[in-house]
Design goal:
The complex is a heterodimer.
Chain A lengths: L1 H22 L3 H29 L30 H14 L1 H4 L2 E6 L2 E6 L2 H19 L10 H10 L11 H19 L1 H6 L2 H23 L4 H12 L11 H16 L7 H4 L30 H14 L8
Antiparallel strand pairs in A: 1-2
Chain B lengths: L17 H7 L20 H15 L1 H9 L11 H6 L6 H16 L1 H6 L10 H11 L7 H5 L6 H14 L5 H13 L7 H19 L14 E4 L3 H4 L3 H14 L4 E2 L16 H18 L3 E4 L3 H15 L25 E3 H10 L15 E3 L3 H5 L5 H10 L30 H7 L1 H14 L3 E4 L2 H14 L4 E4 H8 L24
Parallel strand pairs in B: 1-2, 1-3, 3-4, 5-6, 6-7
Helix pairs in contact in B: 1-10, 2-3, 2-9, 5-9, 7-9, 11-13, 13-22, 14-15, 16-18, 18-22
Classes of the chains: A mainly alpha, B mainly alpha.
Chain lengths: 329, 513
């Protein structure tokens, strides 16, 4: 049911784009209005979510320590797994965000008779890493639609991407990589029983959306060979706030554009915000130095305690009989 | 909710007795049990829960963030010992969080309000509360899931919030609240009154004299001592903790430590941690206030797991600043414990490892030769402190036969004993045995491979919950605290011929120092 609903939603979106531009001729709406609106929602929404999280307090220092703490001088502390200073903290966060450290650690458990067996389970890490890095490269590559002249780093990356010079237009390695990775990520949610059990429509939908975005992009570039110069005219028009819609850009492009717009608009309202959230997670972005440096709780308030005086008042006679010192005779 | 919760015997803990709620000023004290149909919730329970939810979303970034950014990647799914032992999908950390998250979506997110079930939202009903009760008291807040989550989403935080919400309407368990109420009144979880504590400590001193021939005094409530020593009550109350306690007494005597126990601060542990954040603060306040009253320089803490989660991550923030104390310096070696500069509380294995490193103890590890030892990393020292090498250093200097359990079951990946966070009670035995299953099998592995016959640990709850677990899954393996091993190996000035270990069992053939 869950994957089905999401698939239906994505198919619907494709049909809307096809109908809107192909049949209705609404290229102004799909070419200018929707992209602007989607980007605005993305920007405002993203900032809103981050501010809402960053604005909430972190009352206690609760990092998850995955390595030796810094204690005695001759004990080798693990500054990346249990950071005791800012450098370690930045290192830990970098390892997490750039190399998916925690996912690399992943294991899976099986039962051999009565005995639990543990083994490495790194496929998820690999697929996740390939997916995210390909995505980054692809977004970066697309910057050539938004700058005139095209910045040199974008050119360099694009050249690297098409390194093997397969086909015309050149086959980009990241396109292959992302298709493989997203397919794996989607299939595991359908094939592995535990994954099927825990996945919601909001888990299948972004995967299917991204898959369709990629497929439509691939179709646009390699198969329908849409005129990219006219696309650039459109995109540079957005950037300069003088949008025009050139005639003759093929339908596949509009499908791609519409799906990308939906993705941008959807992002701030969904779990895709993990992008920003990871930096704010108190179990990862705090140093394990809570006995060395006092962490302040901004809303700390006094509480009702049982004072020594109340304690002694209750037990004084017994304490005296046992020979224990008392405050008040 | 398609699979309603079933309170089968052995899988849940008795509810808290009304007297304990009243002692702590908690709402809705009444007689009830989880197996009742009607939990006698207050009239406006839904409003209370939702308001409590809202308050906590505003007060804790962790709560809001963890509910928002889970991508259901499934990395945490098979990491929880309760899931491995029971196969119950709601014990997968991701789904345990969904129990709260689904309510969060329905009442606090726009997409949840609009899309309802499609967005994974659901209605808050009494059945949901029952589900929360069942599963949040089937999480030992061990944080293992948090190690594997790409964002560090910590089910322990979520369970703590869940239990706080349940407490708002008076649903908690006795095994947590009775110790908490006792601790509030008598300073320790067992409700032992001051003369009782003195009796027990004096008895242990006599036992030490019996084994070693050395007479020791146990200072209690002594003003002007240099160091306040706070241990979990399990250590002076029940075996095998009592042997660990004997180890402390022997060590402190031998090095001539200027220290004192306290009957008012007679508990390092803090079952408030399993109730609510406010309760942690209320129960913990006594340690600093007693240190101030006695005029000590700093505080030494004994072998206890969740005690150190509180001391390391919460105490300074909640009950500090400890400006009436000084930065801890070992009076024996001169080592400055800089990592404890602000909280001014040092872990005993940090202290002892330092002593051993500086050759201040005369040790004869051969006395532990009949023991083939492995070390069980307890949840909180591992994942809320990072205490790995210190206890190992101590063990390896007092034992000749030490073996590690398989890599995926120790250090930051260590498996909980299955009885932490207040779940270590007998009516819950089936879940305890299931939860402890991964840990037990790791012990079984080293028993079969290396002949291990003793598990060492630095946690008092472990010392209470592991013996039945081991008896069931891995008979023939006993349990010890680290300082019991130290006590065995410690060569004391003026001691007699040590024919037995601290338990009165004969030492290996050699026998003499």
């Amino acid at each position: 049911m869950n994957p089905g609903c999401s698939l239906l939603a994505v198919v619907l979106l494709v049909l809307i784009a096809l109908a809107g531009v192909g049949l209705g001729g609404m290229d102004i709406i799909f070419g200018i209005v929707i992209p602007y609106a989607a980007f605005a929602i993305f920007l405002i929404g993203f900032i809103y979510r981050i501010v809402k999280w960053a604005g909430s307090p972190v009352p206690f220092s609760i990092p998850t320590t995955c390595g030796q703490q810094k204690s005695l001088p001759w004990v080798r502390a693990n500054n990346l797994e249990s950071p005791h200073n800012t450098i370690g903290l930045i290192g830990r966060m970098a390892l997490e965000v750039l190399l998916f450290r925690s996912l690399f650690r992943n294991t899976k458990v099986g039962l051999k008779g009565m005995r639990p067996i543990y083994g490495g389970a790194k496929w998820l890490w690999l697929a996740g890493l390939v997916f995210h890095w390909s995505f980054l490269f692809i977004v970066f590559r697309h910057l050539r639609f938004f700058f005139e002249p095209i910045p040199e780093p974008v050119n360099i990356l694009t050249a690297l991407d098409g390194f093997f010079e397969i086909g015309v237009p050149e086959l980009y390695l990241t396109d292959v990589a992302i298709l493989l990775a997203v397919s794996y990520l989607f299939l595991r949610r359908v094939v592995i029983p535990q994954m099927r059990y825990i996945s919601l429509p909001s888990d299948y939908f972004p995967l299917l959306l991204i898959l369709t975005v990629t497929l439509s992009g691939v179709l646009t570039r390699y198969f329908f060979k849409v005129d990219l110069l006219r696309v650039r005219e459109l995109s540079l028009g957005w950037v300069g706030f003088q949008p025009t819609v050139p005639k003759g850009i093929g339908l596949p492009f509009y499908v791609h554009l519409f799906l990308v717009s939906v993705l941008f608009a959807y992002l701030p309202m969904s779990k895709l915000m993990h992008m920003g959230g990871v930096f704010l997670s108190p179990t990862r972005n705090l140093a394990n130095n809570s006995r060395r440096r006092r962490h302040i709780n901004p809303w700390n308030y006094p509480v009702k305690v049982h004072t020594y005086k109340e304690y002694e008042d209750e037990f004084r006679e017994k304490m005296k009989a046992a020979g224990l010192p008392v405050e008040k005779e | 909710m398609e699979t309603p919760v079933e309170f089968r015997p052995g899988t849940w803990c008795y509810s808290a007795a009304p007297k304990n709620l009243k002692a702590l000023g908690l709402p809705n004290p009444r007689e009830w049990q989880p197996t009742d149909e009607d939990w006698k919730l207050p009239e406006n329970w839904k409003k209370i829960i939702l308001k409590g939810f809202q308050d906590r979303l505003l007060k804790y970034r962790s709560f809001r963030l963890f509910l928002d950014i889970c991508v259901r990647c499934g990395a945490c799914a098979d990491k929880c010992h309760f899931f491995i032992g029971s196969g119950d999908p709601k014990n997968m950390p991701v789904l345990r969080a969904e129990l709260l998250r689904s309510i969060y979506r329905k009442y606090f997110t726009t997409s949840g309000k609009i899309l309802g079930k499609l967005a994974g939202a659901r209605e808050l009903t009494p059945g949901v509360l029952k589900e929360w009760f069942y599963y949040f008291y089937q999480c030992t807040e061990c944080r293992r899931c948090s190690v594997f989550c790409p964002y560090g989403i910590d089910q322990a935080e979520i369970t703590m919030m869940g239990r706080e919400l349940l407490t708002l309407v008076g649903c908690n368990i006795n095994w947590v609240l009775e110790p908490a109420a006792n601790c509030f009144r008598t300073g320790n979880h067992l409700g032992i009154q001051p003369h009782g504590i003195k009796d027990m400590l004096d008895f242990l001193a006599e036992e030490v004299e019996d084994r070693t021939g050395v007479t020791i005094q146990v200072p209690i409530n002594r003003k002007g001592a240099e160091i306040l020593f706070v241990a979990p009550s399990g250590d002076y109350f029940a075996d095998p903790g009592t042997y660990t306690c004997m180890g402390y007494l022997m060590l402190f005597h031998e090095i001539g430590l200027d220290y004192t126990w306290s009957t008012y601060a007679s508990e390092g542990g803090n079952f408030g941690l399993f109730t609510s954040h406010e309760m942690v603060k209320r129960l913990n306040a006594k340690i600093y206030s007693e240190a101030k009253r006695l005029g000590v320089k700093w505080i030494l803490g004994g072998e206890c797991g969740h005690m150190w989660r509180v001391l390391h991550q919460y105490m300074d923030t909640m009950n500090g600043p400890a400006d009436f104390l000084q930065e801890p310096i070992s009076p024996i070696t001169g080592t400055k414990f800089e990592n404890a500069r602000s909280t001014r509380m040092v872990h005993i294995t940090e202290f002892t490892a330092d002593l051993i490193r500086h050759n201040r103890l005369r040790l004869d590890p051969r006395r532990n030769d009949l023991l083939r030892v492995t070390f069980h990393d307890s949840c909180n020292p591992s994942r809320a402190m990072g205490l790995f090498e210190e206890p190992r250093y101590v063990i390896q200097n007092v034992c000749n036969h030490f073996y590690e359990m398989p890599e995926n079951t120790i250090r930051e990946q260590t498996f909980c004993c299955g009885g932490g966070a207040g779940l270590g009670t007998d009516e819950n035995m089936e879940m305890r045995l299931r939860g402890g299953f991964p840990r037990a099998y790791a012990v079984k592995y080293v028993k079969e491979k290396y002949g291990v016959n003793r598990v060492a640990c630095v946690c008092a709850i472990d010392r209470a919950t592991l013996p039945p677990l081991l008896e069931y899954w891995v008979p023939g393996v006993g349990l010890t605290g680290v300082h019991e091993l130290v006590g065995n190996a410690l060569v004391m000035t003026g001691e007699k011929d040590r024919g037995t270990d601290l338990r009165g069992e004969p030492l290996s053939g050699a026998g003499e120092a």
